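Consider one such protein record:
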Amino acid sequence: MSKQQRESLDAMLRSAPQGFRPQPMEEMRSSFAAMMATMAVPTDVKKTPTTLGDRDAVLVEPEQNARPGTILYFHGGSFLLGSPETAMGLTANLVTRTGYRAISLDYRLAPEHPFPAAIEDALSAYRALLESGIEASSIVFAGDSAGGGLSVTTCLAARSAGLPMPAAVLTFSAGLDHTRSGASVETKADVDPFFTKEGLMYNGSLYMAGQDPHQELLSPVTLADLTGFPPVLMQVGGNEMMLDDSTRFAERARDAGVDVILDFTAGVPHVFQSFVGVLDESDQALDRAALFLKQRLG
């Protein structure tokens, strides 16, 4: 059944127009929101608008009493698209599977607010949690795609600011290399149903706004010092042009003495965890992610 599910999902994703063409930003954002609105979202959670730092956010809690611990969640969307609502399926699934509350941050988006605005917002949110009296040891960072990269770069920014590291980092298909130097950008081009190299470069240019990608907050996979990083779980699929963002980061984390798990699932697309109820691997991966968080938050 799983092989059939993977093939059916791939065929469905490829039924959309392929190739790359620049689109107006509002059209890109509305299309992304419409696609993500089709993803299943658990109903047994409470969602409450809130603020964190100086940004809007959404507090997502179990219907019953939450366990002690906070997931600070960063949505995906190439730093151009998305919101806490577009990632609600992932966020709510982590909440229901762990019993922890999550706060999903509505960080600023490019091109209106290019690099490093998103990192500044994420760091401000983390600082606000700490200043509210929450211990770093009871906070985990999690995110998908660009938000997975933001989970990593927020750790780097926190360390530079003299703040303690969170208890752990969880990434789904993290984007960690704006130089696009991973071999998978070429070797996975024919099997990735979402991205093209041209599209990746175009989206990255809007986020970087002319800045050099050869710096640790834009390409941490090759340039960041990972010494002292918290434990990391990286989940990634086999049909991703950004596959090597995760595989190379995991190798460098290992070499830096960081507890790291590279969780690879063959034959599935970018952020495959979103396809709960469609793909068995999605539910299984989220179960493994929840176990990791519960082990780290105790």
Observations:
- The longest strand covers residues 45-52.
- Residues 2-297 form a domain with the Rossmann fold fold (CATH 3.40.50.1820).
- The mean pLDDT is 95.
